[in-house]
Amino acid sequence: MAGPMAAEQGLHWRRVLGYGLAGLGLAALVLLVLQLLVGRRLVAQRQQQLVTEVAANLVLGEVALERFTPATLAEIGGLRLAVGPPPPVGSAEPLLKHQALDLQRSLCRRLGRCPEVRPALVGPRGVWVAMASPLEAVWLFAPLPPLPGWPPDPLLLGVALGVGGLGSGLLYLTHEVQRPLRRLEQAVAEVSLQPQAEVALPLAGSIAVRRLTARFNAMVERLERSGREQATMLAGIAHDLRAPLTRLRLRLDLASAAGLTEAECRRSMADLASLERITSQFLLFAGQHRAEAALEVPLDALVAEVAAVAGVVPLELVLEPLVRRVRPTALTRALANLIDNALAYGAPPLRLELRGEGEVGFAITVWDHGAGIPALAWSRALEPFQRLDPSRGDQGHCGLGLAIAERIGRDHGGGLESHRGPHGFGVTLRGQSVLEDA
Asked: Which position among 15, 46, 150, 178 has the lowest Cβ density within 10 Å, counted as fewest Cβ atoms?
């Protein structure tokens, strides 16, 4: 267990490192863009500020030289002055020469005259600017820092790192948290107690999301295993009951021949019919109908055939000629359950309607004139083994009729719904053509 967990954590941290590198790349790109868009403006502002300071020092120094010596002025004003011949001209760095020339042009525009400006060949980086002195040549030193390049401006660097970190965080949240959680949400919405083709999700995302996904997959596996066990149990019970029921029917036939009264035989046969009905309902609820192949069937003929089995009851058929690809035995059983419920719980006359919905859909409605099922009790009526009328339990009703019809409707892409209308209380089974066989 420790090995897979360590490998999972190592993979997670490698992915985090990848997002961090992506954030650094984004920060570098943002810094480059800011340097191109904002860096030049910052350089121009600094150059303007430098020209203003040099021009102010130059003007104030020239005025002060009329009353003070250069040494006194340097001491009082904190200026660096040089007295004597002009500094030697040598091979200064090209950038410094370019800055000195720009400074001279700016001073010419600001002062109305053009003082001589020479790059400093030794000492701190800067230039010497000639001052207008009445007695001797005096030079003012102006430091010139290099143009901003590398390291970049702290403000721009901070903004770029902030944008890079934000982008990396959003990328991590999107790919490692939000997207896996959205897939998990969709998978949770698709989970049901019915057999699933493939619900398990691949492990992806952050460590917490991966653990949540693993627990979800374990839950789905437990649900599927529990559903299979329940279906196997129901099918096994129903299958095992068939053999003794057959033997019991045979013995009843022999007993009736041996002198059992007609009333006792009739009651015994009714009990057997109830047991066989319950057994067949169990098998249907266990999902036996899913093994049936889908066939192209004229639904109007199928509904008419099922209605004919209902016996001599007032029954009206309103059937639209339709051909759909359905599982005929399952659909027949569902419709028979609806008619049986209408006969057992409702009141005649009955009305069967068949109509098409779109190119592949269909709707079968069974109407009766009974009290119907209250809207608040409809959801409970669709639950398996629920009988709204407990007195019906001794008549072969096990509470699976509507549940089976609703499940068969779902397997045909629809469902079961109840409503009241001009023909009384109606239960509609909706579905559509089955695309694939079970």
From this structure: 150
Mean pLDDT across the stretch 314-339? 90
Domain boundary among 113, 143, 173: 143
* 62-94 per-position pLDDT tens digit: 888 878 888 888 888 788 888 888 777 666 677
Give residue 296's domain range.
Answer: 292-432
**CATH code (residue 335):** 3.30.565.10
**Angstrom distance (rounded) from CA 90 to CA 315:** 118
Total domains, the chain: 2
Secondary structure of residue 412 in the 3-state scheme: coil
Mean pLDDT of the chain: 77
- Dihedral pair phi/psi, residue 435, rounded to 5°: -80, -35
Higher pLDDT, 302 or 188: 302
Three-class secondary structure of residue 397 per DSSP: coil
Q: Is-above-0.85 flag for pTM?
A: no
- Phi/psi for 113 (5° steps) reads -140, 165
H or E element in which residue 432 lies = strand 424-432
Q: Rounded distance, CA 402 to CA 110, Å? A: 97
Reference 69, options 115, 171, 129, 138; nearest CA is: 138
Domain boundary residue, one of 143, 169, 189: 143
Question: Could you tell me the two tokens for 162?
Answer: 């902030």
| Cα–Cα distance for residue pair 230/158, rounded to 1 Å | 63
pLDDT by residue (tens digit) across 174-210?
Answer: 877 888 888 887 877 777 655 454 566 777 777 777 7
Helix ranges (H only) for 191-259 are 207-257
